[in-house]
Design a protein that fits this description.
By secondary structure, the protein is of the alpha+beta class. About 35% of the residues lie in helices and about 25% in strands. The strands form seven sheets. The protein has an eight-stranded mixed beta sheet with strand order 11-15-16-23-20-19-17-18. The chain binds one RNA strand through strand 7, strand 8, helix 6, strand 16 and strand 20.
Amino acid sequence: MDLSTLRHSCSHVLAAAVKELWPEVKLAIGPAIEDGFYYDFDKKEPFTDEDLLAIENVMRKIIAKNDSFVREELDKNQAIVLFKKLKEDYKIQLIQELAEEQVSIYKTGSTFLDLCRGPHLQSTGQIKAFKLLSVAGAYWHGIETNPMLQRIYGTCFDSQKELDEYLKNLEEAKLRDHRKLGPQLEFFDIYHEQAGAGLVFYHPKGALLRTIIEDYEKKEHLKRGYQIVITPHIMDVALWKTSGHYEYYKENMYSFITEGKEFVLKPMNCPGHILIYKSKTRSYKDLPIRLFELGTVYRREKAGVLHGLLRVRGFTQDDAHIFCLPEQLRDEIKKIIDFVFETMKVFGFDQWGVELSTRPEKYIGSTEDWQKATEALEDALKEKGIAYEINQGDGAFYGPKIDIKLKDALKRTWQCATIQCDFALPKRFDLAYIDSDGKEKQPIMLHRVLLGSLERFIGALIEHYKGELPLWLSPCQVLLIPVKETVMPYVQAIQEKLENINIRLEIDARNETLDKKIREAELSKIPYCLIIGDREAKQETVSVRKKGGAQQGAVALDKFIEELNNRIQEHK
RNA sequence: GCUGGCGUGGCGCAAUGGUAGCGCAAUGGUUUUGUAAACCAUGGGUUGAAGGUUCGAUUCCUUUCGCCAGCUCCA
């Protein structure tokens, strides 16, 4: 059975149940979605959790009755008369918006009918396993200025077993939540009453993780012909007027006035990189120029959109801008695509979704340039043989883009990498290079991030690995546990040896039992514990315990170091 | 920003118009430990904040900040 048909039918049953309990409620729409379905209602009093239970009970009754879904065709005017009688104002609007002359309705049982294209199940009895999940507000037609409706979310599966699995998966996702694990593992916290919302405080362990990621990225960028730059966090408003951000991005920018001058806290790194490009005359022989910055930006996000590390007001992008000749464009895009996938794999992600986003309503630059840029991106994807979807009208205001969303262990997607073409900024800043014919020409500019924002990426990492980071990323790789005080000299000798080769370690010399120390090491997800007592000190070995409980027993220290090093080198 | 829910010591929870409790953590001590929680003692909260109702508010009301589920928006 088609899952989306099943869910769509289930949403009709939901609507039928709601109408039975509250006949005055007006119906809006009720489609199937990726993980279930929803139905939007216009009802004065909000639905409560108890209401949901009551609705579920009525739904079960409707399912037990095994009512048929009966399709009927009407012409538009007939349908409007019908829904006027039922006082379903939203349905009337929907009918008026339809292009077709004929519309279809579905009847369920003796009283419920709904405007609907179908298809549906034959009867309600085919619904075997469903659950209502939550209520939330949603604008009619998704437009902010429209009235807000109440949306009931639910899900439905072919069998109770699949539903249970889905619900279990939701619980599993909760356990991985970076908002919970992050502070628990002492990686970061986000809100301080005196600091404001959406601002991240990295604690030592989180800062170490970020440093490891940053170091890796810097090394890889240098290897690939990028040059690292650093630009200021505040810049005069004049720069943002030239770039167009002042006009097109103002509501998201933090700015302040000092000594009569307005400054902007940078929301993007591009204008800064452009100034570096413009600092001298560039030759065609210099191109491509690839400028990379771990650029910290601040954006004024609406309070309601903030979400853990995924949506914050200050974040650091692994941002680069590439200035190139038109004939280099495709090649550069392909190189970036390779770079993105390679980087994702190194961090342990091997599934993704790719989207190409085209011109939005609010844009700068000529339509001709937009078309050229879009083609270049699309061709690069085709040549690389990468499957992608087109996201109409979702580009940035300055150019089309490729978004690469990685999928984590639970198959959830995370927007990270993006590659954006820009024919607009080079024009606004009058960028130029001297071509082989001695004439001044305009370079093409690419914006790109690999991980996106380090904040968001760290959130993805934590949830992907459930906080159990691979050895090479773990802030603490090895915990040394002395069994008693007398072995401390040997422990210190080991410490020195490991620190000399940059192994990150901690020593737990507290006055606590071994069991307790191991328990805490497990909870803080440290990959290796080395238990050190008299036996080990005598034989110059360490007793190795991997996270999860696997014991290797006594291992010669040098052998352990070699094994550890190998794994770190391989990014395991 | 919008709709709804929530906000109790560092963390996880309890109490609900009548003196705010527990566990973990912290601190002091005893114990020197062999692979997921030793024992004893001690300190810590004007219940997110500001107003109001009341003899009395953590509990009721208003405002505000923040969080959560979504909407809208996005790296």
